[in-house]
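RESIDUES AND SHAPES:
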Amino acid sequence: QVQLVESGGGLVQPGGSLTLSCVASGFAFASSAMRWVRQAPGKELEWVSLIYTGRDSTYYAPFAKGRFTISRDDAKNTLYLRMNSLRSEDTGVYYCEKAPWGASPRGQGTQVTVAS
C-alpha cells in the first residue's frame, strides 16, 4: 500500500530555512509525479510545488518560486522541499502527494511554523 512519511518541519524564524523530506513506499516512486501541498490554519489546502519524473520538470506556485526548491532522489524513494527566506505566511502543515492527485491517502504531514 502507498505510504508517505513527511519530516523536517519545525519552528524557524522569518528569513530562515528548512528542508522537508518525504519517504515513499508501496508504489513505483521513480515513475510517479510528486508534489508538495500545504494547509495553513483555517485555510484550504494549496499546491506548493510539483516534480515530474526527470529532475528538470519542476513547477512552483507563485509564492514558492525563487524561494523553494523541489527535488527527488529516486534511489532513496525520497522527495524533498528546500525552503528559504521563510515568511510567517508559510506556516502550516506540509504534505507530499503522488499522482494521480487525491487517489492515495496523504501522510501525516509535517508542521512548519515561522515565527520570531
Summary: The mean pLDDT is 95. The two ends are 40 Å apart (CA to CA).
